[in-house]
Design a protein that fits this description.
Helices cover about 65% and strands about 0% of the residues. By secondary structure, it is mainly alpha-helical. The protein has one domain (about 1-55, about 85-245). The protein starts with a helix and ends with a helix.
Length: about 250
Amino acid sequence: MLISQWKTSRQILNAIRYCYAEHFRLLLTGKAKNLMLIFGHVGITLGAAVTLNGTLSKSYPLTTKENKIKEPPQASSELVPAQNRTSDSRASWLASLANSIDIRLLLLGSLLPDIIDKPVGQFFFRDTFSNGRIFCHTLLFLILITLAGLYLYRSCGKAWLLVLSFGTFTHLILDQMWLEPRTLLWPLYGFAFERIDLTHWTENIFHALRTNPGVYVPEIVGAVILIWFTLVLVRDRKIRTFVKKGQVV
């Protein structure tokens, strides 16, 4: 059973590495278009946060939100294969991240610009904007939410708004908003946003998912990371705890 779980974890980690490499290759060669969907945004943001947190803090014990020390049970290193320890370390990175922030807010932040802009620009005020990337896809919005998050953290010690800010930052990066300077640097180029044809928006998305590697590769990357995350929750029997409290340990 343990060997089977280890092989599954290794396969998922190898798939994540491959998908990341392929996605960035597409970015560097200019073949990836700035269209990112749900799995790409959520999964890649989670993977980036776990990797960044694990890189910056590679040590045990973990510090919880209440600044208490929590030492996870550890097996003797002689009894655990090196590859299995590597797999477990990834889960420990996830646990460390969950002890610092509410991962639910991170996942929400990864979609926050779309959650606001898509209904406003594509549905409720379609005649006015006709664009799903408006106010919340701007650098100004990111700066404002970050400054507000810093103030809240320094005055009250609460980091939830900074977590949303990080999610928003990764969203803009993954959307490659530097390719749309009129939107990213709004209102420096004027107060009007670029209008796009949304007539066949849904059909174009499904077509891109089938034919454009710049679209389906990020979705594969995100899906693989989310599968790994779900397997960790299932293995540790923490799905209900995560949904209710955002905890994975």
